[in-house]
Amino acid sequence: MALKIGDKAPDFTLFNTEKNEVSLANFKGKNVIVHFFPLAFTGVCTTQLCTIRDAIQLYKNDNADVVAISVDSAFALGKFKAEQNLPFDLLSDFNKETSAAYGALFENFPALGMKGVAKRSAFVIDKNGTIQYAEVLEKPGDLPDFSAINATLEKLK
Predict the structure, then answer these.
(1) pLDDT single digits (tens) 22-39
(2) Is residue 14 one of the residues assigned to a domain?
(3) Catalytic residue (one of 3, 39, 45, 66)
(4) How does DSSP assign 94-152, residue by residue?
(5) What does pTM read for this prediction?
(6) What is the C-alpha separation between 144 and 101, in angstroms, rounded?
(7) pLDDT at 16 > cutoff 70
(8) Is 50 a catalytic residue?
(9) Full domain range(s) for residue 149
């Protein structure tokens, strides 16, 4: 079942690139943007995460933290984060449970015959853990609607 605005965001606990656990509960009292992306080191994923990186001050001004989740290992994500100079946590959903809970998992990825890859998605979760924006993309080449994410954050100020 797809998550929608007004739903309680599913909690998660995943490892970041420093091998520390990060939970949605860590962000209680703050707005958080949760991005899912298919695979590190790919063109559209790099564009997605670098777009976030380049707007990070906007998100901080809107009292929002950012995390990005993929099914890559924490080790691969660490290398990707360093290469792209990303100032937010990349979280490994290697077991695919969080991606599935958010309705953001391709059973069959449309490229390379891969199974169990995260769908490019964006969720804005408010200070109380309620979803205020939800976008799950079916085409891996599409990017999230960053202007809609920003408009949602503006309403939460």
Answers:
(1) 999 999 999 999 999 999
(2) no
(3) 45
(4) TT-HHHHHTT-EEEE-SSTT-EEEEPPEEEEE-TTSBEEEEEE-SSTTPPP-HHHHHHH
(5) 0.95
(6) 19
(7) yes
(8) no
(9) 27-155
